[in-house]
Amino acid sequence: MSQPKPPADLGLGERGTLRWALICAVLAGVSSILLLALSGWFLTAAALAGAAGGGAVLAFNYLLPSAAIRALAIIRTGSRYGERLLAHRAALLGMAKLRADLFGKLAVQDSRLADDLSGGDASARLIGDIAALEDLVVRRPTRPASLIAATFAVGLTLFAGWAAALALVAMLAALPLLLALAAKRLTASPAHDAADALGELRTRFVDLAAARPEIIAYGLGDRVTADLDFPAARLDSARAKLFRGEGAIAALMLAYGALSAALVLALARGPAAEIALALLAATASVEAMAAFARTALRQASVDESLARLAVLTGLPSQLAPSPTLTLTPATITLGAYDLAPGSRVAITGISGSGKTRLVEALAGLRPAIHVIALDGVPIADCPADRLRGQLALSPQDATLIAGTIADNLRLARPRVTADDMHAALITVCLADRIAAMPDGLETQIGEDGGTLSGGERKRLSLARALLAGRPWLILDEPSEGLDAGTEADLIARLDQWLTTSGTGLILVSHRPAPLALADRRVDITKIVA
């Protein structure tokens, strides 16, 4: 399975930002090593001059080294801040682009063929797994900068002789391999368990949040909490193991730095001040390789996120057709019945007989189990964009997004005008209710229309379907949750709208009033495979 590589997908602006971050990282690494080495040389030389007394102290020029140390400290601080600021900026922008791209792929998938990802699982991948990839971008400039800084440190170690420098080269060359082996042994398994548990926990949270009214109404809070305890405990256990592994690798780095310094000291030759310079440069060189340590610490978690995201990146990236695209109205075949454009038909049958399954298949949301065709082409062979261009669905369970009322209506047509929205709201008997809200069409509603009643959510979904302007309208229980008076008004207005627009209707309703919209009825048992 191919895995996504988000950093390679960064835009020109982000890549340019990363180049500046690399420059800052190199400055930070080199100045840090030079600062520590120069400080070691300065302190040792000053101590030796002081021990020599009188003339040596007067001859020792402490002003230039002091100024250089202060300048290096400023450069190190400023460049380190710049590197982190620029790298995180590039990472955040890159991750935002990746989220948008992957969501776009999800949005255009043919629901009949796409992998079955629940809302919770998809959101866990788009949010949590992509967030884990931020480290890929953030550390991109630090790894080459670490190599440059370490090479510079080796050069400074030459002040203590070739033997010391070669020993340091050997130690630094072995460090990435040692870190990779340690990470594989200590963090790979817990990282896999943590990613899996976090994905499961996020999925359950999202799915249970959608049922929060029922959870509250039936007092299921304790049961839900108990249901979440297992993945939460599994996540805590995996993270604890992961943190212990990261702590062990950090201790390994500390011990490795001490060993490298001891080896350089044992092989060093030359004046004491220059040995001090080389010794501290060697110590700083191991610290400069911290980017490789961070890679080792985080790589297992990143690999798990990449594997989970591969499901999304592997989706075809065809673009959805323009919502304003108009297609010639098609003839719909249901079993032995041919429905000409503009026809109005009600699908009848007992509860649970598959009426909703039928209309969802017709809308392209799931595979068909009934005999359905569009202009003689079986529905399974019709491209998804063909179905989208013909049919607008107002489902039994209306789905709304967190945002404004206008945001929800614009899902039908992004450039829909306020006048068109108002006209649709009048048709569904919701205009007065919206007008009475503090901000009208710009009134914020919670996730899944939380501030609206069930009947209002249903009618807002219906208004959205009207605004889509498709040749066929599919209504599944359009008047559910309405009182008799509002229902009668809605039916009358829909009848007028269908007549004026010439839109065809396929209706499912267990209530008798909406059936008046249909000219004919088709029993679900007559539409069999």
Architecture blueprint of SSEs:
Elements: H1 12-52, H2 54-59, H3 63-107, H4 119-132, H5 134-138, H6 142-157, H7 162-186, H8 188-210, H9 212-217, H10 221-267, H11 272-288, H12 290-313, E1 332-334, E2 337-339, E3 344-348, H13 355-362, E4 372-374, E5 377-378, H14 384-390, E6 391-394, E7 403-404, H15 405-410, H16 418-427, H17 431-435, E8 444-445, H18 454-468, E9 472-476, H19 484-501, E10 504-508, E11 520-523
Parallel strand pairs: 3-10, 3-11, 6-9, 9-10
Antiparallel strand pairs: 1-2, 1-4, 4-5, 7-8
Characteristic terms for this protein:
single chain; 529 residues; alpha/beta; four-stranded antiparallel sheet; 64% helix; elongated
Question: How is this structure best described in words?
Answer:
The protein has 529 residues and is α/β, with parallel strands linked by helices. Helix content is 64%, strand content 7%. It has 19 helices and eleven strands. The strands form three sheets. The chain has a five-stranded parallel beta sheet with strand order 6-9-10-3-11, with helices on both faces. A four-stranded antiparallel beta sheet has the order 2-1-4-5, with no helix packed on it. Strands 7-8 form a two-stranded antiparallel sheet. Helix 7 packs antiparallel against helix 10.
